[in-house]
Design a protein that fits this description.
GO molecular function, one term: DNA binding
Protein name: DNA-binding GntR family transcriptional regulator
Oligomer: single chain
Organism: Nocardia puris
Pfam families: FCD, GntR
CATH topology of the largest domain: Four Helix Bundle (Hemerythrin (Met), subunit A)
Number of strands: 2
Strand content: under 5%
Strand order of the largest sheet: 1-2
Keywords: DNA-binding, Transcription, Transcription regulation
CATH architecture of the largest domain: Up-down Bundle
């Protein structure tokens, strides 16, 4: 065999670590030691070190004075970030209602077509879906004509993304999110801006509840791990 098409060991370790972080299989209070992880994933410390570096860049692990640990979300911070997200995204539509400016319909049409295709053939939930969701909302906000609002939303996503990436939505949730994206885009294209705003608010509220619930679950795992260790 010439190895063509084989996934490199470092990539396999990275994917396995990401999967186990998402499933909560790694105790949040235990340090991610290279030697132990190398034994678990059947690899040397070099690919494990590379995988941990990528996961740290992804925000899925965080560095403490004594090493790397699974990312541990802070509920209050997350709630505040979602409140800021709500303010930013609704303002994008409100400024259209208040000032009578039009959205850039071309980019919204492109997003509508993408989500319609995705709805017909849904992909696997994971980082790619998170990225597509972020792109949709950033596109809507930028289409409202204020690039500064979109830049601020990007900063919010950077801080929220680790918890969203850990979340594994069910097919039902993916279908609901897709339908809501399509509804928002269709209403904006039809000039029904107030209805689009109502749908957007409900959509963000639902995402907020799911992400906070996922973060709370992670905190419970943290407390459980601490209790077992003590």
């Amino acid at each position: 065999m010439n190895g063509k098409g084989r996934v490199p060991l470092s990539e396999r370790v990275y994917r396995s670590l990401r999967r186990d972080l998402a499933a909560g299989a790694l105790v949040p209070t235990e340090r991610l030691g290279e030697e132990k992880l190398a034994e678990i994933y059947g690899a040397s410390r070099t690919p494990v070190r590379a995988a941990l570096a990528r996961l740290e860049a992804d925000g899925l692990v965080e560095r403490h004075p004594d090493g790397l640990y699974p990312y541990r979300p802070r509920l209050e911070e997350l709630d505040n970030l979602f409140e800021l997200r709500m303010v930013l995204e609704t303002r994008g539509i409100q400024r259209v209602l208040a000032d009578g400016d039009a959205h850039d319909l071309t980019v919204i049409e492109a997003e509508l077509e993408w989500w319609q295709r995705f709805g017909a053939e849904p992909g696997e939930p994971g980082p790619a879906l998170v990225a597509a969701d972020e792109r949709f909302h950033l596109t809507l906000l930028a289409a409202a004509g204020n690039a500064a609002l979109a830049e601020a939303l990007t900063a919010v996503y950077v801080r929220v993304r680790p918890v969203r990436t850990l979340d594994l939505p069910t097919p039902e949730r993916v279908a609901t999110m897709t339908a809501e994206h399509i509804a928002i885009a269709e209403r904006l294209l039809a000039g029904e801006v107030d209805l689009a705003l109502h749908t957007l608010v409900a959509h963000i509220g639902s995402a907020r509840r799911h992400v906070l619930a996922r973060a709370e679950q992670a905190l419970k795992l943290t407390r459980l791990g601490r209790a077992v260790r003590d």
